[in-house]
Amino acid sequence: EKAVNLKKDLAEMQEWMTQAEEEYLEKDFEYKSPEELENAVEEMKRAKEDVLQKEVRVKILKDNIKMLATKVPSSGQDLATELNVVLENYQLLCNRIRGKCHTLEEVWSCWIELLQYLDLETAWLNNLEERVQMTGNLPDKLDAVNDALESLESVLRHPADNRTQIRELGQTLIDGGILDDIISEKLEAFNARYEELSHLAVSRQIALEQQLQTMRETDHMLQVLQESLGDLDRQLTSYLTDRIDAFQVPQEAQ
């Protein structure tokens, strides 16, 4: 009777493993929204816990069959053969569910990381847009133009590492068919805004550099003229002081 019950327990265990495999491993999942992906992750975590909890039952079965084998070798030997099959299938099921759970957790982590990088780069784009707008109505002063140019250049020196991460993370998920529509839309919007603002900022940078160069050249010319006029003023003053007649001085002084 005990052998019959153990045989029944082995059959039930095998049936449960078959159902678990069908439910958790053979479904075709499509993750088209973050909610679907998150639900799948939570489901696989529960599946992993459920499968691992059966380990106690498997151990009890194993111990009972060993005990039976010592008392009734013939019955125990047959059950031991079935037990080995169940143990092998159970271990395989555990490994596959652990693997799928780990994969889904990695995918979810990849999605969260992508959102974080997008938030960082969006904040940088907002800052860049603000700096570009600030260069629109500058006072016609060299210091103001120079400060605006340095401020804009400091933002433009932003490293490209985050954008590389965004591209790689997004492509990884899209290649796996994970949230591909949502990610494609996000990346398209981000890249379009990045290209637009980058070109605008670089154009504004070039314009400010040219404006600054013109203002410096003008300042230099004014300085040279001012120095020349100062020299002339001092020379004329000396002529007047010495009461020299205008027709006695050089033509340029006249």
Automatic annotation (TrEMBL):
Note the Gene3D superfamilies from the entry. Answer: 1.20.58.60
- Which N-terminal stretch is annotated as signal sequence? none
Which superkingdom, per the lineage? Eukaryota
Family annotation (InterPro entries): Spectrin/alpha-actinin, Spectrin_repeat
Q: Which UniProt keywords apply?
A: Coiled coil
Stretches of the chain forming a coiled coil according to its record: 3-64
What protein name is recorded for this chain?
A: UTRO protein
Top-down, what is the taxonomic lineage of the species of origin?
Eukaryota, Metazoa, Chordata, Craniata, Vertebrata
